[in-house]
UniProtKB/TrEMBL annotation:
Protein name: Molybdopterin synthase sulfur carrier subunit
NCBIfam families recorded: moaD (TIGR01682)
Naturally occurring in which organism (per UniProt): Iodidimonas nitroreducens
Gene behind the chain: moaD
Alphabetical list of Pfam families matching this protein: ThiS
TM region(s), chain numbering: none
Length: 84
């Protein structure tokens, strides 16, 4: 199981703050998980359609689509952060 935590418009588009997922065993990278998540609902598909518009963290460390992800990890998905 992997815990997914969503922030800002990602949370609003998917319709929940977090969820626990059980992706197939061949989902070993963040890109694999995102591809699998897109098929879970229309909201997931819409929000995750362009991963380059999002930022990711695995276990509180910034991650890229090539990052490995494993059972028990926490995946955070959020929009880019800007400051002023």
């Amino acid at each position: 199981m992997i815990t997914c935590v969503y922030f800002a418009w990602v949370r609003e588009g998917i319709g929940c703050e977090s969820e626990t997922i059980a992706p197939p065993a061949d989902c070993t990278s963040l890109a694999d998980i995102i591809h699998w998540l897109k098929g879970q609902s229309p909201g997931h598909h819409r929000v995750l359609a362009d991963p380059s518009a999002l930022r990711f963290a695995i276990n509180l460390d910034h991650a890229t689509l090539e990052s490995p992800i494993r059972e028990g990890d926490e995946l955070a998905i959020f929009p880019p952060i800007t400051g002023g």
